[in-house]
């Protein structure tokens, strides 16, 4: 993962994954743009109504604007076909999230072996979205 990009550490606080830490790193701009275009393409193909989301007039400096962007992303992921939703979610996770072993350097996570509670995929994906739009602070989900 590249130098100069925003990062944060997220530690799971409950459940079977309690105590596991993850490094969330912002995607380089071109990758983030490609991911967003794929998301919007899938939204369009799936008939998700984005007419009420005026991207150019969102207040990207306020918490309300950031929450609106995050909510739109999560809404789209929830409304597109399952296969595309899963592919986008795990593409985001693979690009942005690394597990931090107890005594080691961050590395790619083996999702099917290292995550026990299913909700943690969504929590980590929300943090990965949040680091790009600054609406989730460290430790919030």
Question: Could you walk me through the main structural features you see in this protein, from its secondary elements to its overall organization?
Answer:
- It contains five helices and four strands.
- It has helices at 29-45, 63-79, 82-96, 111-114, 119-133; strands spanning 7-11, 21-25, 97-100, 107-108.
- It starts with 6 loop residues before the first strand and ends in an 8-residue tail after the last helix.
- It is α+β, with helices and mostly antiparallel strands and 141 residues long.
- It has one domain (7-21, 37-44, 57-133).
Give the topology, please:
Blueprint: E1 7-11, E2 21-25, H1 29-45, H2 63-79, H3 82-96, E3 97-100, E4 107-108, H4 111-114, H5 119-133
Antiparallel strand pairs: 1-2, 2-3, 3-4
Helix pairs in contact: 1-2, 1-3, 2-3, 2-5, 3-5
Globally, the shape reads: globular
Neighbour order of strands in the largest sheet: 1-2-3-4
Q: How many DSSP E strands?
A: 4
Report the biggest beta sheet as strand number plus sense, adding barrel if it closes.
4 strands, antiparallel
Q: How many structural domains?
A: 1
Cα-atom radius of gyration: 15 Å
Order of helices and strands: EEHHHEEHH
Brief digest:
By secondary structure, this protein is an alpha+beta fold. It is built from five helices and four strands, in the order ββαααββαα.
Which terms would index this structure?
141 residues, single chain, alpha+beta, disordered C terminus, globular
């Amino acid at each position: 993962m590249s130098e100069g990009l925003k990062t944060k550490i997220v530690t799971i606080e409950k459940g079977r994954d309690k105590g596991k830490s993850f490094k969330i790193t912002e995607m380089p701009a071109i990758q983030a743009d490609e991911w967003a275009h794929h998301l919007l393409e899938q939204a369009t193909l799936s008939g998700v109504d984005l007419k009420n989301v005026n991207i150019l007039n969102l207040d990207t400096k306020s918490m309300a604007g950031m929450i609106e962007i995050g909510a739109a992303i999560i809404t789209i992921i929830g409304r597109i076909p399952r296969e595309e939703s899963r592919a986008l979610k795990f593409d985001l996770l693979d690009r942005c999230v690394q597990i931090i072993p107890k005594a080691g350097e961050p590395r790619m996570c083996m999702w099917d072996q290292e995550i026990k509670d299913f909700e943690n995929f969504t929590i980590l994906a929300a943090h990965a979205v949040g680091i790009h739009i600054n609406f989730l602070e460290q430790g919030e989900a």
